[in-house]
Amino acid sequence: MVKSSVLGFPRIGANREVKKAVEAYWAGKLTAEELTKAAADVKKASWTAIKERGVDLIPSGDFTLYDHVLEHSLSFNVIPPRYQGHNLSDLDVFFAMGRGRQAAGVDVPASEMKKWFDSNYHFVVPEVSEETDFKLRRNHVLEQYNEAKALGIETRPVVLGPISYLVLSKAAKGAKAGFEPISALPKLLPVYTELLAQLKAAGAQSVQVDEPILVLDAAAARAAEYASTYAALVKVAPPIVIATYFGRLDSNLEFAAKLPVAGLHIDLDRAPEQLDATIAAVKSTSLVLSLGLVSGRNIWKTDLTAAATLAGKAVQALGSDRVIAATSSSLLHTPVTLASEKKLTSEQRDWFSFALEKCAEVATLASVLNGSQDAKVTAALEENKTSIAKRREFERTSDDAVRKRVAAITPEDLKRKNPFEIRRKAQEKLNLPKFPTTTIGSFPQTKEIRQARAKLTKGEITEAEYDEFIKKEIELVVRFQEKVGLDLLVHGEPERNDMVQYFGERFNGFVFTQNGWVQSYGSRYVRPPIIVSDVSRPGPVTVQWSSYAQSLTSKPMKGMLTGPVTILNWSFPRVDVSRKTQSQQLALALRDEVIDLEKAGIFAIQVDEPAIREGLPLRRVDWDDYLTWAVDSFRLSTAGVEDSTQTHSHFCYSDFNDIFPSIQRLDADVISIEASKSDMKLLSAFQQYGYSNSIGPGVYDIHSPRVPGDQEIKDRVAAMLELLSPDLLFINPDCGLKTRGWKETEASLENVVAAAKWARATYA
Ligand code: MET
Ligand SMILES: [Zn+2]
After folding, report:
1. For helices 304-318 and 375-396, what crossing angle results, to 10°?
2. DSSP character for 675?
3. Where along the chain do its domains lie?
4. Is the pLDDT reported for residue 676 higher than 70?
5. DSSP class of residue 217?
6. What fold characterizes domain 3-396?
7. Whole-prediction pTM value?
8. How does residue 679 score in pLDDT terms, banded at 50, 70 and 90?
9. CB 338 within 8 A of CB 358
């Protein structure tokens, strides 16, 4: 019989119960017992709901109050010394590692977070050295397995595999030069042996061991470790299903299919083309093939008929006992349930499946593959066919004008009129001094601003009253910048709820959820917009605010937009057209906005692309294609202006060194880039590749309330000037100030301005 399985479930609760409980605990308003109880309620609700949908293999062990990688670090005693010896409970050590701790004489920063593959989820990076004392400090997977069992629910525990865990780790600060975490594998193995043996003793029928790095180029060098590791683990563990996701195995399939485990899971949402090769590779083995048919990364209803046809190939070749119908990855990247959405039209609602609806999909798929004649299954399949047909019809009748415009894009549209050197002369009309100071766009989003927005939503104030309020905020920000002495001003973005949502709400083609929260990290959840049809701009979006701001001052005002690639990467995209096409449509909408800003007298315009790096494909061979359309989209959105208009862009959240040549190809007149957390790294990219346009590497980290001293900023500027021409350097913080308070903002920016004055005198 074909079984159904779900690889993991959102751990935030249907109504964000976990966020509320965790934050209340941090604020001292909930005890550890109460927090544990709140978590238990959420786990119970999830397991019960998944079971009710008819799923055979229900995940456990994937729940966490912060991050699942961090859970493993705590279980394995991978706890950096700075978090030890403070007399904290394990729960508080866990949170201290996740978010830092500043209380009662303890002052430790958070561990580093990194994006989980190409998703917008961040995991806490484990720190490993020769000194790491691996031991099974607790077994969080076993605890959850037993917790479900006590509720009468048999689950399949999920654990992150040892090789992925170590490849995702970094060398701890104190490690010897050249230390590689993977070299600790022999010390980590006994811990996994113990963990898995305990699961077996507790009665687990099988275990899901995630090895997502198998879809990366980096895994190719690990074939030997894979073979020896799993040969050892299968001796003590329940039957192991190795789960891969977010991409294709490619050449790694060769050794993965030979591992002595019970099953292999592949992602057919991201890489359906790998099915045939995988079937061929496992045919002569006894491996069960778990097929990731229902997307764990997007929210579109699965075409069950198409999925069943695809899966039918595997059933035919391997027999139904060797096939599992599954979600492509954990469902943690999707919202919990459509049932909470009251504002979608019935047409829209019919397009989507969130996590719980996806559980029903895998169950139906398994039944269909088993040839079920059950009336409920037949009805579900018929209903799905109707929904899919309606959606296809909608796709066909979408916006023709937009499609024609995309088809008519020419290479000329991607090019500024003249090269940077000529534009730079024309831009002297902005009258910026040497070492111009500027900020990245947003100013503190105060409680008052959020309250005004909430009042507008609730209808407690009128649109006109809200606009007046925003104008006052803008005036405050403009006067503040004049007082501090900044050169290129911004309006502060007080009108924006979020840099992506704000544009999505004003463009055609987007749908928003009320409760479609997805975990980004820890207790921070986001509600990604959904792109449902062709995107266009009904009218100007930001022009009124930027021109109002410009009308208040004689200093130049910088217009502020979110770029096409970032809007795309932080939304749920359509699946009926390519990401490239969606990005081009967004770029055309933004291009019109850029030109309208210029017409309104805004001669510096910034188009932010903080997410350009995270959209990079996981496999090196796929990079060039992505970088070509991503960079072209940015160019399309900005190239329509005169030479004398200065285009800016901004990047943060990543290490940009590996795509540095593409950053140059954006041909923005000025870029600002996050650098303060790892300045030497970024500078080495300048050294390696060179950079010809203006640039402002961030001179301080805005993610912390700490005020940078003026000497510290001067030192940074001096270091940058070792490699960059004084004529090209801008001086700015490394990201927007929306999460900061006014006090530290003022003190920090005063030091920024002082450093610029010093630079002007020193490098005259
Ligand atoms: C995450 S990048 C943020 C850029 C935006 N302009 C801001 O200042 O907030
Ligand atoms: Zn930023």
Report:
1. 120
2. -
3. 3-396, 425-762
4. no
5. G
6. TIM Barrel (3.20.20)
7. 0.95
8. low
9. no
**Dihedral of CA 507/511/516/520: which sign?**
negative
Closest among 614, 323, 602 to 488, alpha carbons compared: 602
Q: Which CATH architecture has domain 425-762?
A: Alpha-Beta Barrel (3.20)
The residues lining ligand 1, judged by C-beta closer than 6 Å to any ligand atom, are: 440-442, 499, 560, 608, 610, 650, 652, 735-736, 738
16: left (phi over 0), alpha (psi -120 to 50) or beta: left
Ramachandran region, residue 178 (left: φ > 0; alpha: ψ -120 to 50; beta: rest): left
List the residue whose alpha carbon is closest to atom 7 of ligand 1.
736
Task: Copy the structure tokens of residue 196.
Answer: 């898995």
| DSSP per-residue letters across 195-235 | HHHHHHHHT-S-EEEE-GGGGSGGGGGGHHHHHHHHHHHTT
The verdict on whether 491 is a catalytic residue reads no
Q: Read off the pLDDT of residues 560-588 as tens digits, 9 standing for 90 and up.
A: 999 999 999 999 999 999 999 999 999 99
Distance 397 CA to ligand 1 centre (A): 35
Q: Do domains 3-396 and 425-762 have the same CATH topology?
A: yes
Supply the residue whose CA is at minimum distance from atom 2 of ligand 1. 610
Give the closest residue to 246 by CA, choosing from 265, 263, 267: 267
Q: What are 685-730's pLDDT values in tens digits?
A: 877 888 899 999 999 888 777 888 889 999 999 988 988 899 999 9
Contact (CB, 8 A) for 266 and 249: yes
Burial of 242 (0-12, 13-18, 19+ CB in 10 A): buried
